[in-house]
Specification:
The chain is 41% helix and 20% strand. It is of the alpha/beta class. The protein binds adenosine-5'-triphosphate (ATP) and magnesium ion (MG). The site of adenosine-5'-triphosphate (ATP) has 20 residues, from helix 5, strand 11 and helix 12.
């Protein structure tokens, strides 16, 4: 049997009434965008329920898309009957439960009846449908406490919804309900995860990548574009700003003490990200920093680096262990790309002995020889901004074969 409808459950319990309308509107928009390649699929919102009418579009593929959309708590492939005829409901319920793979041994029926015009009460329906299923199957038994499968019957104004399977969604809030942040996106493992977690709270992100051609290769840049492509599957699409960073790095190496080059380089990244945030209407900057993970991520280092800007920082990974971060990156699909070997601009300029506890006054003195303002402005003006659309990973691999 193939399903013609998908019932979508959404909303965090704590969501305020006032925000609910916006939340739903944005969620519907994001779902429509994610299903653009399936023009016959319709997103329908009625009587406080959100569902998709597939109209022949493939369920499996659409399931994969829905699993990525933030704001969806769970969803179910659903049989929708436009009829309120008891026998038809019983027959359809039987078909739906027979379709469960692997075949369950126990089940129970759970009826909800918001449509009070329907003549049979919920308790009665549980028996009427359950009894019919029992009579027409061989092995199935009822278990009300711990069944393999719950047959959900919802009798609503617009029809009867029957479903047995619940697929967990990503949760969170729909991207676009929480403002915008710039994500400092390197080619590493951490920053894509940080971006995903920021998006999960409903925040739209634009990537900022510092590129030091020819010290770093075209492949390093392509890797970041690919990572943005994977992230954009969760958000619909995203902008990526590629900042020319060679000049600044060269100047730092020429004029600043070696042990402070990383600190100063990061101070430049902050200033430029803040300018880009202002230019593009973002109110925060997100990074993949995790306290204590590497030398430049000590408290003192963050203080000295952060001191050059005012914009609030989002550091979703700050308290996480590397293994937790790696697990998320595998789950969201960025890991395999992140571990490709191409160097990013930081690995190339690693000093022999970077300071682990850089002092603010020393950093300020150390960069005194540089024309900070002009260097920053030039980099911002020469930043290349590109739109990234969700990519089909399979197609990508084909290119390499
Ligand atoms: P990641 O795995 O995200 O590269 P990391 O563990 O390598 O992080 P650092 O190199 O200290 O850590 O970088 C800290 C953060 O600074 C990164 O998570 C990222 O947000 C930002 N960052 C580092 N390099 C770049 C870059 N070339 N372009 C943009 N952002 C960067
Ligand atoms: Mg890195």
């Amino acid at each position: 049997m193939h399903y013609e409808h998908i019932l979508i459950r959404y909303g965090e319990l704590a969501l305020k009434k006032k925000n609910r309308g916006d939340f739903e509107k944005v969620l519907v928009k994001n779902i429509k965008k994610a299903l653009q390649a399936y023009p016959k699929a319709q997103v329908i919102r009625t009587y406080g329920r959100l569902y998709i009418a597939l109209n022949g579009e493939p369920y499996q593929e659409i399931e994969g898309k829905l699993e990525k959309i933030f704001g969806i708590h769970s969803f179910s492939p659903t049989r929708l009957l436009q009829s309120f005829n008891l026998e038809e409901i019983q027959q359809a319920a039987l078909e739906v439960i027979k379709d469960v793979d692997p075949m369950p041994r126990t089940f129970k029926v759970q009826t909800k009846r918001p449509n009070k015009q329907f003549p049979h009460r919920s308790m009665d329906m549980n028996h009427l449908v359950g009894g019919f299923i029992l009579k027409n199957t061989e092995e199935l038994k009822v278990d009300v406490h711990n069944p393999d499968v719950v047959m959900q019957v919802e009798i609503r104004q617009d029809g009867v919804f029957l479903s047995c399977k619940t697929v967990a969604g990503n949760g969170g809030l729909p991207v676009g309900t929480g403002g915008k942040a710039m994500l400092m996106l390197s080619g590493g493992i951490d920053s894509p995860v940080a971006g995903w977690m920021t998006m999960k709270r409903g925040v739209r992100i634009e990537g900022v990548h510092f590129h030091s051609y020819p010290f770093t290769s075209e492949q390093a840049k392509q890797k970041v574009i690919d990572l943005a492509g994977i992230l954009s599957e969760y958000s619909g699409s995203m902008k990526l700003h590629i900042v020319p960073f060679t000049e600044i790095q060269t100047k730092i190496r020429e004029f600043c003490p070696e042990s402070y080059t990383i600190t100063i380089m990061r101070r430049f990244m902050m200033r430029i990200s803040e300018k880009l945030a202002e230019k593009h209407g973002a109110l925060a900057i997100a990074t993949g920093e995790s306290l204590g993970q590497v030398a430049s991520q000590t408290m003192e280092s963050m203080y000295t680096i952060n001191h050059v800007i005012q914009t609030p920082m989002i550091r979703p990974l700050i308290a996480m262990d590397k293994t937790e971060i790696v697990n998320i990156s595998k789950k969201i699909g960025t890991y395999e790309t992140s571990i490709l070997p191409y160097e990013d601009c930081c690995t190339i300029f690693v000093p022999k002995s970077p300071v682990t506890r850089p002092k603010l006054e020393i950093a300020e003195k150390a960069e005194a020889k540089l024309d900070v303002e002009n260097l920053v402005n030039w980099a911002v003006e020469n930043t290349e901004s590109i739109w990234i659309e969700p990519q089909q990973i399979e197609e990508e691999f084909d290119l390499f074969n």
